[in-house]
Amino acid sequence: MSDLKDAPTTVDSDEVARFSALAAEWWNPAGKFGVLHKFNPVRLDYIRDHVAAHYGRNPASDRSLAGLRVLDIGCGGGLLSEPMARLGAEVVGVDPSEKNIGTARVHAEGSGVPVDYRCTTAEALAEAGERFDVVLNMEVVEHVADLPLFVSTCASMVKPGGLMFVATINRTMKSFALAIVGAEYVLRWLPRGTHQWEKFVTPAELEGYVTDGGMTVTGRSGVFYNPLADEWRLSRDMDVNYMILAEKAGV
């Protein structure tokens, strides 16, 4: 058996350390991750509506995801995992940071929400043969060490006929101005250094990796912040934040 230290990894240890240092902030809507709390409703609606349509569910039902196995990869403190579980999904929340997983577990236990949180990696899950109806890959790909490997590994865990959602930030001058200078230095929505512009990924690049992973992109949407309404909304503009939806062919 080869030495695990020599095995390819998608984990960026610097990124893990950066987010581990902020672990206590995950569930504070006025804290360091406040922007994610505001971002959550639009991505939750996008995921729920598309999953419900794909699997023939009623999106208005409070158990619209019942019976579906969902992976939230790079789950952080569980901001997305818990709402998915409340909708009835069997959720596995994974993060390489022990501190993040600890925060997520404590919050879920206090909320009475059943989520299977694990401190592990996408590679380890895939090697163990884990498979899911839905894989959520949200605001993660811009923080990994090997993007093509990470996307293909996540895609390999999607069951035939299943879905994968990916949300990230485009690599444009507009994203540098808004997502880094604006969000981190001017508005201070995020701690400085949260993002590195060179690790942002264009839709064309991301869709290429998804296709190479054996999936077909079936949906895409930009997301923008409306300051007057103080909320995030879907948009045709994918110059900064965007989401894509991919499907794996059935057997």
Task: Characterise the protein shown here.
An eight-stranded mixed beta sheet has the order 3-2-1-4-5-8-6-7. α6 packs across α8 (203-212). It has eight helices and eight strands. β1, α3 and β2 (90-95) form a beta-alpha-beta unit. It has helices at residues 13-20, 34-55, 81-86, 98-111, 122-127, 147-156, 173-186, 203-212; strands at residues 69-73, 90-95, 116-119, 132-138, 158-169, 216-226, 231-235, 241-247. Helices cover 36% and strands 23% of the residues. The radius of gyration is 17 Å and the shape is globular. It is α/β, with parallel strands linked by helices.
Summary tags:
globular, 251 residues
Q: What value does the average pLDDT take?
A: 92
* Number of E strands: 8
- What's the total helix number? 8
Rg, please? Answer: 17 Å
Query: How large is the share of residues in beta strands?
Result: 15-25%
SSE ordering? HHEHEHEHEHEHHEEE
Structural shape: globular
Give the structural class.
Answer: alpha/beta
- Kindly, what is the distance between the CA atoms of the first and last residues, rounded to a whole number of angstroms? 32 Å
* Quaternary form: single chain
Instruction: List low-pLDDT spans.
Output: 1-5
Biggest sheet, in brief? 8 strands, mixed
Adjacency order of strands in the biggest sheet: 3-2-1-4-5-8-6-7
The percentage helix is 25-40%
